[in-house]
Design a protein that fits this description.
Layout (H helix, E strand, L loop, with lengths): L1 H29 L3 E10 L3 H9 L4 H7 L5 E10 L3 E9 L9 E4 L8 E6 L6 E4 L4 H4 L2 H12 L4 H11 L1 E5 L2 E2 L11
Antiparallel strand pairs: 1-2, 1-4, 2-3, 2-7, 4-5, 6-7, 7-8
Length: 188
Amino acid sequence: MKSLIALLAAALTTGCASTATKNALGEFTRVDKAYAQVVDVFDADRYIVRSRCAELKDHKPSQEVCAHLQDFDMARTAVLRLNRFILSTVAVPKTEKVKEGDIIEVDPSRQLAGFKRIATHEPSETCKWDGPITWKGENSLPATMAGFFAGMLVIPTVVLLSSDDILAGGVVCEGWSYKSLVKTPSQS
């Protein structure tokens, strides 16, 4: 009976975490100003970007970018992590020379055309990723092994249920925080 109660509590909490992530993603797509850390940069003139342009054929700001893909790089960015990362991709003019690790200001409502400016090339106290798990840390072998061993261990339910909160994080920059996108568990 105790095992059933613990399993039910874990399932309910996981549901809230998933809802919190969905709510944060929904909130992110509605705001006109956010910050994100660049995790990958690639040339915009690719089939996958042209396919995305076709999907956005009625979105005028994105079509302005799509008409000149040769002039852009695509920056894949991480905004926050709850139980998974929230990622976004924006076109950045090649003249900006965006690189992995930069923190950029974006307008998510403009989709592909959401780039505003590079906020910083180097993380600082006022503009950085805040939290224990970074994009590189999440995808590294040590992080993978740590996750495997944590999953194999029998740990108290309280630790299991709060693990998403422990691993939460995101970009904090110039007074803006990823926390503005996150709904508390009582709201899920």
